[in-house]
Amino acid sequence: MTLTSRLLPLHLGVLAQGFMLWLPVEKLFLSEIGFDAAQIGLMAAAYAAVVPVVEVFSGILADRWSRRGVLVLSSVALSVCTLAGGLSTGVTSYIASVLALGVYFALFSGTVDAVVYDTVLEETGGSGEFERRVGRVRSLEAVALVTSSLAGGWVAELSSPRVTYFLSVPFALLSIVAYLRFAEPVLHRRSERGTLRAHLGTTWRAMAGGGRLVPVVLAAMLSATVTQLVFEFGPLWLVAVALPAVLYGPYWAVLESMLGLGGLLAGRFALHRLPVLAGLLALLAGACAVLVTGGGAVWFTVAQVVLVLATAVVTIHVLRLLHDAVPSTVRTGVASGVSALSWLVFLPVALLSGVLVRDAGPRAAGWLLAGCVAALAVLLVVLKPRTRLPEVQLVTRT
């Protein structure tokens, strides 16, 4: 079996899972059932609070039980979230539904990257293909999101935003079938398993890495925060300029496609080279300048596209550094732990962004986004000379 054929069921699962017709029109639906900008921030903080709690344990579960099983559970959580969201009639019921979305994020994010990394290791004996292969997974996810975004805008225009939720449920259920056909890697099962307490300690020591992984972990956290801020609050810049409802689908599709394009380009950008890094930082600075100084719908969209594309490239590069430095036995736990920390950072930032948008408009929140980008830029400069970190040497304590 080739690497491509082995990853095929995973690709199909990601495609089905990413088909969310409701995503591009969610903010419109929220306005229909009574949300304001501050309550949108509260909603984002609600599921962001769930993610770190669930994610640490989901990573441990994936390492000790089954990574494929955790992906199946993520599809179940997405199905519940989508159905409950469509049935929501007010702020309280919708916030309750997005708690399941937090569970989905927690189960999916660190797991799929670890699955791809270990599958590449098993099939090729090295990690050289990781950036290209995980980039392909991100690209397929983006294809599903782009397609569903375009379709979702038209479905909402022809019927209502609520209908998009109900039509998305079957796709989440189909992803379960695909994941069950995936032959997951077994590298994480080859060493003797200690107690749960010992496993948690080993995972924490791997994340700490004697301090060597701290810049990598911080860069991963900030990159994820910037991306999430754009997707969560970016549409509010367009709401402020009264963009017609039918255009939210294409707008969202363009944003989602940047995740895929970033996945395809990640392996081709040598971020350890100063000219490449300087060009990337200049793009990030220009995008932030547009969001804080003003412009029309086109300029706001271009700025957000640049931010998502650049952070997609950065995220995959940082993930490669992270996975190279940790052993397979705790790979998902470490990746999930880093993701959990990212959500802990996003939670207060989301709350503050919602208040800023409500009281002073989107441009005020743009300064907060620019601050996150500036901190990320500093970390990228620190990481510039590094193309690979040595694996952390762990001693399991029982």
From TrEMBL:
PROSITE patterns: MFS. It is found in: Cell membrane. This is MFS transporter. Residues 1-388 form the Major facilitator superfamily (MFS) profile domain. One of its GO terms (cellular component) is plasma membrane. SUPFAM superfamilies: MFS general substrate transporter (SSF103473). One of its GO terms (molecular function) is transmembrane transporter activity. Gene3D superfamilies: MFS general substrate transporter like domains (1.20.1250.20). InterPro entries: MFS, MFS_DHA3_Transporter, MFS_dom, MFS_trans_sf. It is a multi-pass membrane protein. The chain crosses the membrane at residues 7-25, 37-57, 69-88, 94-116, 137-156, 162-183, 213-231, 274-292, 298-322, 334-358, 364-383. Keywords: Membrane, Transmembrane, Transmembrane helix.
